[in-house]
Write a structure and sequence with these properties.
Blueprint (H helix, E strand, L loop, with lengths): L7 H4 L2 H33 L16 H23 L3 H21 L4 H19 L6
């Protein structure tokens, strides 16, 4: 069987397959964390009693406002994750930016829901790592 008649996955190098796997992982992770952000935003918008409201700190916003912030970040992140899975190169850079904004938003949201915010920050960091490993391949 000649290389021209072989399927693409048989002629790919291990590095190419690894890159494809990491890119897919990054896209799925970005979309998953974005869904977490959307759910967090909906919970804050729909029912303010879900989160602690009496904390005084430097980044004080109304819980409903925080809900809209998380919802917007989540929707943009979900669209970006889908773009990465579709193979759009711009999705990787936008994904890093969205993850960075997500980290900042969750850091500022820590007083309202500390454990969840830290978990989401960890997932955003993992997303940035996965996307940055692919920048060399572009």
């Amino acid at each position: 069987m000649t290389s021209a008649s072989r399927p693409a996955y048989e002629t790919s190098t291990t590095r190419d397959l690894f890159a494809l796997g990491v890119t897919s992982f990054a896209g799925v992770l970005l979309a998953t964390v974005a869904i977490f952000q959307i759910l967090e935003g909906i919970a804050a918008i729909a029912k303010d009693e879900v989160y602690v409201n009496g904390v005084k700190y430097a980044y004080k916003l109304d819980i409903t406002t925080w809900g809209w912030v998380h919802l917007v970040i989540g929707v943009i992140g979900l669209i970006t994750g889908i773009a990465i899975l579709a193979g759009q190169a711009w999705g990787r850079l936008l994904g890093i930016f969205v993850a960075f904004i997500g980290i900042l938003a969750n850091f500022a949201f820590i007083p309202h829901y500390p454990v969840w915010s830290i978990v989401v920050i960890a997932f955003w960091i993992l997303t940035i790592w996965a996307l940055c490993t692919q920048l060399d391949d572009e």
